[in-house]
Write a structure and sequence with these properties.
By secondary structure, this protein is mainly alpha-helical. It has six helices and no strands. Bound molecules: fe (ii) ion (FE2) (2 copies).
Length: 166
């Protein structure tokens, strides 16, 4: 099996996109089914975002400084997704805004995945050799083992909470 970093990340994307479609096809009244799907989406996104933030993005940024702007934008897109994930995580599935929030998360992450796959991953493949991508892939697999599976407080939310209670 290939441990190529881009191949591994695209496998995650595929699994996440499948869950997005499952959510959309679940129907209006399938609140229990949708809650389960959203729970799984949150788990996969938490792991995936973590390994990109901790391994993929910093490695690529160091090796290919020309991609800095793409990577900074991607960090911001992760941040938006983190906030939505955190809010969904704390929400009852029958809440009025649950479906709407899940839909906005899906729209955002779909766009983000497209940018990774179509815009800057190809530049990473062109700029790094097979060996480097293989090494990063191995690091991704290691990080995956200890990655958080559910959201802890993202720093921005933590700051908001601290500001409110202090
Ligand atoms: Fe990403
Ligand atoms: Fe990704």
């Amino acid at each position: 099996m290939s441990n190529d970093a881009i191949v591994l990340l695209k496998e995650d994307h595929k699994e996440i996109r499948k869950l997005f479609t499952d959510f959309e096809n679940a129907g209006e009244d399938a609140s229990k089914t949708k809650a389960k799907i959203v729970h799984r989406i949150i788990e996969l996104l938490t792991v995936h975002t973590y390994i990109e933030n901790e391994v993929m993005y910093p490695r690529v940024r160091a090796l290919l400084p020309d991609l800095e702007d793409d990577i900074l934008e991607s960090y911001e897109e992760h941040h938006v997704a983190d906030v939505l994930v955190m809010e969904l995580y704390g929400m009852e599935p029958d809440a009025e805004r649950f479906d709407a929030k899940a839909t906005v998360l899906i729209e955002n992450v779909r766009h983000h995945i497209e940018e990774e796959e179509d815009e800057w991953f190809p530049k990473v493949r062109a700029g790094l050799g097979r060996k480097a991508l293989q090494e990063i892939g191995e690091e991704l697999l290691v990080a995956k083992k200890t990655a958080p599976r559910e959201p802890s407080q993202p720093s921005a939310l933590k700051k908001t909470i601290d500001a409110v209670i202090s």
